[in-house]
Each structure stands twice: as C-alpha cells, then as structure tokens.
Amino acid sequence: MEINQITENKQDYMDLLLLADPQEDMIERYLEDGDLFVLSENGDILTVCVVLAKEKTCELKNIATAEQYQGKGYGKYMVRYVCEHYAGRYDLMYVGTGNSRKTLDFYKSCGFMNSHIVENFFTDNYRDPIYEDGLLLTDMIYLKKKLDTEIDVKKVVDLALEAGRILLKNGGEIFRVEETIQHICRRFHVEDVEIFTLSHGIFMSAEDESGDAYTKVRHVPLSGTHLGIVAEVNELSREISAGQVGIDEAFDRLAEIEKLPAKKEYFQVLAAGTGSFTFAILLKSTLAESMVAFVIGCIIHMWVLLAKRLNFSKIIVNIIGGVIMTALAILVLHMHGSGGLRLEGMITGSIMPLIPGVAFVNAIRDIADSDFLSGTVRMIDALLVFVYIAIGVGSTLALYNSLIGGLVL
Questions:
Q1: Is the pLDDT reported for residue 152 higher than 80?
Q2: How high is the pLDDT of residue 150?
Q3: Is the pLDDT of residue 243 over 60?
Q4: What is the pLDDT of residue 323?
Q5: What domains, with CATH codes, occur in the chain?
Q6: Contact 157, 190 (CB under 8 A)
Q7: Nearest by Cα to 311 from 220, 223, 202, 373
Q8: Cβ density class 36-46: b for 16+ within 10 Å, e for less
Q9: What is the pTM of this model?
Q10: How far is CA 165 from each of CA 1, 55, 151, 256, 367, rounded to the nearest angstrom?
C-alpha cells in the first residue's frame, strides 16, 4: 500500500472524485491548482484526495474512497498522511463538509475541530440538491486541525530511537537498527537525519523545517538476545512505513513488544539440550556421547537461567558453566567405566548453550558492512566469552589431572 502525488492527467481520477463532490465543474475549480494524492495497493486505486494550499493554511477539498473499499480505514489513513505531509509548511488544515453527522464524526475522529460555517453554500453553488444520509445539505461546515511540527519532529526522533534501542538491545545488527530508524523518520517526513550507531549506543540528530536540530543519545548496554522481539519490531517498522500505524500507537506497541517474555523456561532447557545433542552429532561424537551432551546441555542452561535471576556477571556465568559441564562429563566418564565414551565427545556438544553464536555472527556482519568499531567490540565480547568458558573447562581438567593422575581417556 502506497501513496503517490499525481501531477499529470488528474482528470483520470474524476470518477472517484465525484463520489465526494457530485458536480464536475466544482471539482475543476480546485483540481488543477490542488495537490492530488492517490492511495493504491497492487494496482487498485483505493482512495484519492485533493489538498489546496494557501499562504499559511491548506484545505482538504476532496477525499473519496472507492465504494468496495469503504469502511476499512483507508480514508483515515489518507487524512493522517496529508496532515503529516503539510506539517511544517502550514499552520492549519481546513476541511469543509455538509451537516451529515457521519461525515462530521469521521473528521473529528481524525483530529479536526469546529471552525466556522458558510451559510447556504451548497444551495448557492450546486445546481442540484445534494442529499447525504437522507439529509439535504445546505450550509458548509468548516473544521480545522492544527499542524504542529515542532512536537512531531521530536516525537518522531524519540520513536525511531526507541525502536533502534530495542533492536540493538535484543541482538539486532547495526545496519538493521539504522535502516529501521531511517524508515520511521522518512515515513513521518523527517528527512534530514544523521545516525551513528555503536554496539552499545545510538547517536541521532534531526532537523525540522526551520533548521533547528534535535539530538539525542541513547546508551544501550550489551545484553542477551531475543530474536522474537527483533522480529516484532521489524514487523512494526513495516507497518509504520506502510502508514498503518501512527506515532502514538507505535509508542504503545513498542512498550508492549519490549515486555514480550522469553520462551518458557522448560522449552529453553529442552532447546539447549537439543542443540547440544545436534552439535555433538555434527562434531562426530557417538550417539551415547551425544545423549550425555543433551543432558549436560539441559543442566547448563538451567544454570544460565538461575544466574540471570541472581544477576551474576557474564564472567561468573561462563566460568562456572565451563566447570559444571566438565565436572559432569568427568563424572559420567567414571560412572560409565571404560565403555568407549570420550571426554571431548561429551564436552564439545554440551558447551553449545554457552556459545554466543548470534553475537559472534553479528560481529562478523558488522565488520563486513564496514562497521569496524561496533563489529570489533562485539567480536571482543564474544571472544571473551570463549575465554571464560576455556578457563572453566581448563581449570577443571587441570584440577582433575593433578588429583586423579590424568586418567581421562
């Protein structure tokens, strides 16, 4: 669904414009000088709109939706679009209509309020009587809406920055964060935008029509990954770009998205075990070793969940996680006896719940996209996790070798 401004062959849309204004010569008075907008989807014309600009105000002269698409919100979407389009250039937008309650309620739901009345407008300017909902239209009732851009620019920047923060916090790539911010700003006609995104912060500046800059900085600490939230923000961004969601609604949606819970803990534990089992198979472990890796992987993720509740640091989580998996593998090795189980066959699979795979891949993607600083920071963070795990595994094996004598194979 998209809206385009038509500058040529405006008469081609006359049939649709006549749905809102039944006298062709009245339409011709404002069609040539007015701005014509067309809302279409998959080649179908849904809604048309004509706006006539004056010195400090503009007037919505005609808006009509094809009969088969009426009642689906396309008219309200068009009104919102043109209000945003003319914000910054004009102070007020006027619209004139008859005294039909249905039409008046529609414009008031779009934020218009009563302005003034032109008596006998329809009877003086139209050859034939006009009826709407069984009511004879006589007076033209004008409504107005204030187009306040200074607040809008700040709200747009705040909205875009909040969407970017949520993406970055939950594992979104740098390019995805910046594209989302740009799409949101472009949708609300904030074109002059500068964005600088790091792995743990977003710097953003935008200018309004008067050239005044609005700048914000948002610190985003490195944290875990929630790809479900990333997917929801991406979907919301697409809806905003399509004009289906306004600013206030988008703020509410972002607040709801950020509260999305992670998967049930039992599901996470089973998924961690399944991942451990699968990677063990891929890394040439035997079926028995892979089954042990499944159990250890489940236990390791239980530890990770507990550590998160206790707010343990990443260093403690991964070092102790390495100790736990190695100790459990050694325990299974001794319980099983010399039945062919290999210590490395069990550990290589069970280590997977601790591996920061998404962060590592994102670091590579950032570097590939020439975001060297962010990619390097993420890469170092991921590599340090590997170091913490190695410390836990290595120290446990060293202690085992010194106490038991090294009978580990």
A1: no
A2: 45
A3: yes
A4: 93
A5: 2-147 (3.40.630.30), 150-258 (no CATH), 265-404 (no CATH)
A6: yes
A7: 223
A8: bbbbeeeeebb
A9: 0.59
A10: 27, 40, 21, 14, 20
